[in-house]
Specification:
about 425 residues, alpha/beta, three-stranded antiparallel β-sheet, 14 helices
């Protein structure tokens, strides 16, 4: 998908486009629903499962990076009911325990939990995406499928998840042992969590997917694992517009048929697409018209999934073309706020609200302090805004996210 923290969609972040500030904006923007972010409840069994159509349509959202929009505002503007939260990774320092983005342990998380609770309070739900383009994946660090599954089970139990996405791409999918662990873990989770919705997402090429993607499919066949869908990402690989994408989907369908022995209809019923809205990492463009064409293809062929990277990018840049650059926080094409998200709503079978969203997203808070950045050095007395609160550094710090825990370097001055 594209700009994320370090994962897949963060080819853009790797280029320095994504921002680490406003990490808890979504949770803060729903403060009335979930309270102070450090006291957010663990949303175990907090919401009823949605129909699989909503998990199949859930676009990606980074809740802690890339200037996250207020999830409730997106839901109100579009009618969306599900988000694909990204990404679950191994700790940056090593180990086989789940974290958000390699830095925020799932076990002690309250921030993402607050976001999930706010979404569920409005009748929605979430899936979590594991893997992505950057960072270290649990399949790389955990020695066996069983250990990998146990790490992911912690995420499922922590948040009461009913859906999970395995985002298997480079560099992880070039590691056969890691892919064996990931596919094996997915199969174990499918058996231990009856009814869980599982998607597997991988890179797209003109002929469907590349050599490593094909090896991943062969691994799934060898382990007799069938998820709800296999999805490809036809962008960043020489694609330009809908015609190239639908051609890749047609080729991928043939590949699914030959790998698993399915007929065409069965293959489409297990096939999905993950797009990138607006300007891709490599300068390709996918407009609203392209999304409509791909949506028509997906629905007419009864495909299993239609998603995109990302809600964080589903708003207009300033200027609209972002001076010819790709961003992790806006689309680099003219649009109304959350306009691309409405195509996911249509795929789910719902009708988006008739009112046109504003061209810029509503503010999620009124903080006046500069947004916190992980790469900035803060001295004692310096302030930064984070999660809808203003924070003051007590002494020198860099790279420690504002919170009331950790080393105690940050003092919470209250909500903005």
């Amino acid at each position: 998908m594209a700009p994320r923290q370090a994962p897949r969609h963060l080819r853009t972040l790797a280029a320095g486009i994504a921002t680490a500030g406003l990490a808890l904006a979504t949770a803060a923007g729903t403060a009335l629903a979930v309270g102070h972010h450090t006291a957010a409840p663990t949303p175990k069994a907090a919401g009823a499962a949605l129909g699989s159509n909503w998990y199949a349509a859930a676009p990606y959202l980074m809740p802690l990076d890339n200037d996250p929009p207020v999830a409730g505002a997106v839901m109100d503007a579009t009618g969306l009911k599900a988000f694909q939260l990204a990404f679950i990774l191994a700790p940056n320092g090593g180990g086989c325990s789940p974290t958000w983005g390699g830095t925020s342990p799932v076990g002690t998380d309250t921030a993402v939990g607050g976001v999930i609770s706010a979404i569920r309070a409005k009748g929605g739900d979430v899936s979590a995406s594991v893997g992505g383009y950057g960072g270290t994946k649990l399949g790389q660090n955990c020695g066996t499928p069983e250990a990998t599954a146990a790490a992911y089970q912690q995420v499922i139990d922590k948040y009461g998840l009913k859906a999970l996405d395995f985002d298997l791409e480079e560099p992880e999918y070039e590691n056969s042992a890691a892919i064996h662990n990931e596919i094996g873990a997915a199969k174990i989770l499918q058996q231990k969590n009856p009814g869980i919705y599982l998607s597997v997402t991988t890179a797209g090429t003109a002929d469907g997917t590349g050599w490593f993607g094909k090896q991943m499919l062969n691994e799934a066949k060898a382990q007799s694992f069938t998820p709800d869908n296999f999805s490809i990402m036809p962008f960043d690989g020489g694609f330009q517009g809908a015609a190239a994408q639908t051609a890749a989907l047609t080729h991928f369908n043939s590949l699914l048929q030959s790998t698993f022995g399915w007929d065409e209809a069965t293959a489409y019923a297990h096939e999905g697409i993950s797009q990138m809205n607006g300007r891709s990492d490599t300068g390709e463009f996918f407009t609203q018209a392209d999304f409509q064409t791909v949506l028509d293809f997906a629905t007419s062929h009864h495909m299993a999934r239609f998603t995109n990277w990302s809600v964080n990018r589903d708003r207009q840049c300033s200027p609209p073309d972002n001076n010819g650059k790709t961003s992790g926080t806006c689309s680099s094409v003219p649009q109304s706020a959350y306009e691309f998200t409405t195509y996911s709503v249509k795929f789910a079978g719902a009708t988006p609200p008739t009112t046109t969203p504003p061209t810029t997203p509503p503010p999620d808070h009124s903080c006046t302090a500069t947004a916190y950045r992980a790469d900035t050095v803060y001295l004692g007395g310096d302030t930064a805004s984070y999660g809808g609160h203003t924070w003051k550094a007590k002494w020198w710090t860099q790279g420690e996210t504002p919170s009331t825990g950790g080393s105690g370097v940050w003092q919470d001055l209250g909500a903005c």
